[in-house]
Amino acid sequence: MCGIIGMLNKDGKRIDGSSIKKGLSLMNERGNGQGAGYAAYGIYPEFKDHYALHVFLDNMKEAKFNVEQEIERWGYIVYSEEIPTTDKGIFEDEKIPYRYFFKPDPRKLLGRDYNEKDAIVEMVMRINSQKNGALVFSSGKNMGIFKASGWPNDVAEFYKINQYKGYMWLGHNRYPTNTPGWWGGAHPFGLLDWGVVHNGEITSYGTNKRYVESFGYNCSMLTDTEVVTYLFDLLVRKHKLPLRLAGMALAPMFWKDIERMPEQKRQLHAALRLTYSSAAMNGPFAIVVANTCGFVALTDRIKLRPLVIGKKGKAVYVSSEEAAIRAMEPLLDSIYSPPAGDPIVHQLEVQTL
Amino acid sequence: MISNFIPSKYDVHVDPSRCRLCQRCVENCTYDVFRKEEDRIFTFSSNCVVCHRCISFCPADAISINRRIVNYREHPFWNEESREDIYNQANTGKIILGGMGNAKKYPILFDRLVLDACQITNPSIDPLREPMETRTYLGKKPKSLKVEEKDGDISLKTRLAPNLLLETPIMIAHMSYGAVSLNTQLSFAKAASRLGTYMGSGEGGLHSSLYEYKDNIIVQVASGRFGVTPSYLNKCAAIEIKAGQGAKPGIGGHLPGEKVNEDVSKTRMIPVGTDAISPAPHHDIYSIEDLAQLVRALKEATNWEKPVFVKIAAVHNAPAIAAGIARADADGVVVDGFRGGTGAAPKVLRDNVGIPIEAAIASIDKKLREQGIRNEISLIASGGIRNSADVTKAIALGADAVYIGTAALIAMGCRVCGKCYTGLCPWGIATQRDDLVHRLDPIIGAQQVYNLINAWTHELQELMGAAGINSIESLRGNRDRLRGYMLDENLLEVLDVKTIGA
Amino acid sequence: MKIKKYPNKQDSITIDAKNKTYRELNSEIRTAADQDICHITLQNVLGQRFIADGIKKEGIYLSVFGIAGGDLGVFMDGPIIYVNGNAEHAPGNTMSGGKIIIDGDAGDCVGHSMRGGMIFVKGNAGYRVGIHMKQFKDNYPTIVIGGSAQSFLGEYMAGGIIVILNIDKPSSIGDYIGTGMHGGTIYIAGDVPDYKLGVATVKEEFIDEDRVLVEKLVDEYNAYFNKKVDFDAITFTKIKPISLRPFSNMYTTE
What we know:
The structure holds three protein chains of three kinds.
Chain A: E1 3-9, E2 15-16, H1 18-26, E3 36-41, E4 51-57, H2 62-72, E5 75-82, E6 96-104, H3 116-130, E7 134-138, E8 143-148, H4 152-159, E9 165-166, E10 168-173, E11 189-191, E12 194-200, H5 205-213, H6 224-238, H7 243-250, H8 255-258, H9 263-275, E13 285-291, E14 294-299, E15 308-312, E16 315-319, H10 322-328, E17 334-336, E18 344-347
Antiparallel strand pairs in A: 1-10, 1-16, 2-9, 3-8, 3-10, 4-6, 4-7, 5-6, 11-12, 12-13, 13-14, 14-18, 15-16, 15-17
Helix pairs in contact in A: 1-10, 5-6, 6-7
Chain B: E1 10-14, H1 24-28, E2 34-37, E3 40-43, H2 53-57, E4 63-67, H3 80-92, E5 97-98, E6 113-115, E7 136-138, E8 147-150, E9 153-156, E10 164-166, E11 170-172, H4 182-195, E12 199-200, E13 217-221, H5 230-234, E14 238-242, E15 253-255, H6 262-268, E16 276-278, H7 288-301, E17 308-313, H8 318-326, E18 332-336, E19 345-346, H9 347-352, H10 357-370, E20 378-382, H11 388-397, E21 401-404, H12 406-411, H13 434-437, H14 442-466, E22 482-484, H15 489-495, E23 498-499
Helix pairs in contact in B: 4-14, 8-10, 11-14
Chain C: E1 12-16, H1 22-34, E2 39-46, E3 61-67, E4 77-84, E5 97-102, E6 118-121, E7 142-145, E8 158-164, E9 183-189, E10 201-204, H2 208-225, E11 236-241
């Protein structure tokens, strides 16, 4: 089932993680304590020009050594530390969450058609496929993902998310379907500044996976959410589609509706379906995909998963359940369920901080 | 005594207590099995090809046909077939010809693949009540789209290549006029246009009575170039270059002169009574670069308005060849598996050359993806599609669409007797004899083919719905929804499917 | 409370739902019901599911303040629930009798497989309203939505009545209306373009019998929500199934 939640302050105002935790915890019926997590944007202003790599380490010896050796092949670590966690013994530590603030070095990437973000993607793919005791689960600038196996409240407390201030937050309460919960399998899933939370099971996974793999992505996690992340990275970052259009490619209009459109629009939507047929996602889903600028929220085309959007002033909320939004903000200006398959985009109205 | 006598295979028996002596069997049999003498029907069983025409028309259910068992000394290796082929060739010194597809007992891979269905974790979808899209486009698609955003309006900047729109991913395969009757082709054309799909013209030109269906016809350009004129190239929805055929990879074709009557002659544009020879290769294609030349020449002739497909037999190197075809400006590659049908093929090729379509689809799709050119070309599978499950599995393995040939013929009465090359088809299909051709009413034939593809499309939708998929593009190449049953590890890897239970 | 029809009984109780789980909440509701307390008020409801789940009793009035969680009144038979706020997915799921009155909007699958009783929603409802609701003998489920409904309204519908009043946005009704229905009637205020009709449905003339039926429901809606919907000013589109067995022609046997 899974519960998803998100909030964005379009004016860039940063708030701490206590509110999102409250909303997410309200949906505990949608999870089973086997995975929860948060993505927070705008939390590392002091390192805003560096990629913040959040890494799960199996140990502080070989795993740490291996991952640092790999990272240093691509650039410089300017600061690193264990991600502060509570010592209340909430979890038996399955992994050691560690973070690196990192800057790629063009000189180290000589001989490549240099593109900084592609390099980061390649580096993350390499580390995560090498299975050497380290998993990079967050790799954007001025944002970070915090996740573990547990209930939302415990995960929030473990990572002390009350101490981070972000202008946008995502949260996920997991009810794992196909795999037992583990730290890496929790959501949000991230790559670069993408943060993705997802409720559902994508029946088109095999098609989507092979599609993104033909563009060099490596689906090492075998989860739907990973594939969604790569699809957005491909369509938006690489193919430069507007966020809303990328959402439409993933949940395309029915041919019946395309045929009724005015000619120019019809051509656009037909072309989108033809070109991105293997990117189209089937099966039940509600997803929220965020990047530094904002988020897009989207359900499958026949509404097999719930999604509601609420607004209050400059704040936008999105969740599986209205009550979760009300837990964060009881007095909303408006609340509604968008039509199935209609990507709802909300973006910052100010320049990135 | 004839040392190399081959015993007849069937016993045809007319039950005198039931027979009304109406002689429909005598009239209907084209192989002279029945003769009326006095007050009974005599049978000449050795002529029987088991076409069931007599049985279908006997009003008294008086006819029975049984396999005639003539025991040979049992031997697991020197079986009946191997011995009889030797007697035959010792008698004649000739190449053995056979009709229809590969008749050897290879394992059927389709039957070792099972499909998936949703249970609880995601809902299956009811195809009768909710949208279930089978629409398919064949042709080149761009790798990415370029759009321009202005004041919230998004406009398209990429120009798309021409594509064929199919309402169902099932097309009717190429069977030439000459090999099959005009009424067969007319049946196909009518069915294709009602279904929103396409039929192949085959390589024998296009008879004028098919012109009205041109928007649902894919015309073929084979090595014989019969009937290929500028107007032929423009009386179609797409063009297909036939480089090979699954039933007889690596060899050409031969329509015997006796089938070339007045009408066939006009359509093929060759004199009446001449053999129509299709050379083994196209003698303007000796390499993949040459193929690109022919593709481009055809596109020039049609103002780049029509997709051009290239058909090859499924041979060992099919993936690399398909990738080459994708780079040669072609819009689709048709791959024809070793079970593909034919009017006549040397038995030795039919039964021993080529690979099954299942493996060909999987390996071609994979190769195209690996090279990042899957969008460059559509993959159309043919040769050995027996039912909607095969269609569904072919698409899940990576095909965009399928052609059905034999199944479409069976829909019109064909009994797979495999004697197409005699020209005596009693069902009016593989014949040019006027009286026989008239046995097939194109209106009824069209209805039956329409029914078949319509029923398969519904079944495809049921299978998709059960798998929680409501548009065909999410089934395509979705091998995660297949499992291999009793397939060895190598084959599982080639097909890129997991074993059952995994 | 806008409902004036409650009996003037002293037996009432107020339960504060704040921070309570649905099990705690339902347990308190059941206890109250067992004690014949007729009017139960729930304050500070925030997404608790299964409120009044399976309660089979006439004469119980339940007032919910806040956001009723999913499956409100699931399997219930008899009680009347009034929600002062919105309800999430599937209020009235498989309910046999009673009433659910929602003074707000409702989520997807309102009245899923409902067998009897009535649901009134003041505002809009989500996808698949009345999916597979069915009638049997005297049980005749009824749903009235004041606003609009999203797609697959009355999917698989096998009986009962759905009325969509389309008060605010007359043309926003969803697609695939009544798809695969094989019983019951859907009434929608205003025109419905043919392309929005689902498989196996047909528009029929709105006749006197319909008028009587729908007018009564509109009056009831007006009473509950203090609205003034003018029945006479509305032209209804009436949608019926083409057959009781719409897909019987799809099959042949082995």
